[in-house]
Specification:
Number of domains: 2
Order of helices and strands: HEEEHHHHH
Mean pLDDT: 92
Radius of gyration: 20 Å
Low-confidence stretches: none
Largest sheet: 3 strands, antiparallel
Strand content: 5-15%
Number of strands: 3
Helix content: 25-40%
Strand order of the largest sheet: 1-2-3
Length: 159
């Protein structure tokens, strides 16, 4: 089957992909639909820094999924409280903000910076980002992204 053609038929073309259909992964290796093995240097864009299908992560996810799969942040959950405590005790921060994506994290950082900047006279609202950067697909993160091709078609952007 031509999976790439089928993908193009059903999935929006919002960014370029490598011509590789990955069917499984383990550790730092990925396999394509023809059985060829590659070293994954992307690590799931840093989501899989510990490797694909790490046995301890599988055990932890499996144990959690039998207790509680998903619940709104309208409720308190023990794992969220415990990981927040761990992060605070091992970082510079005294609070954490959990996000669903990098775009949401970057959007929150932009909002926090703008809110903090309001205390000055005149208020400070500008942020710095690098050329060639990518920060997400929300309007604020597209504005912060340093690639014209990502911004094209979404003008006017934020100041």
């Amino acid at each position: 089957m031509d999976w790439i053609s089928k993908d193009r038929q059903y999935i929006m073309d919002v960014y370029s992909r490598l011509p590789l259909v990955v069917t499984k992964a383990k550790g730092c290796k990925v396999w394509d639909d023809k059985g060829r093995v590659y070293t994954d240097l992307f690590a799931g864009i840093s989501v899989c820094n510990l490797g694909h299908c790490h046995p301890e992560i599988i055990r932890a996810v499996e144990a959690q999924i039998y207790r509680l799969f998903h619940i709104s942040n309208l409720y308190y959950t023990l794992p969220q409280i415990e990981v927040a405590e761990l992060l605070v005790k091992h970082s510079f921060a005294d609070k954490v903000f959990f996000c669903n994506s990098g775009a949401e994290a970057n959007e929150a950082a932009i909002k926090l910076a703008r809110k903090w900047g309001k205390q000055f006279s005149p208020p400070k609202y500008k942020i710095i980002s690098l050329e060639g950067s990518f920060h997400g697909r929300t309007i604020a993160t597209i504005t912060a992204t340093g690639q014209q091709k990502v911004k094209h078609g979404f003008e006017p952007l934020l100041p």
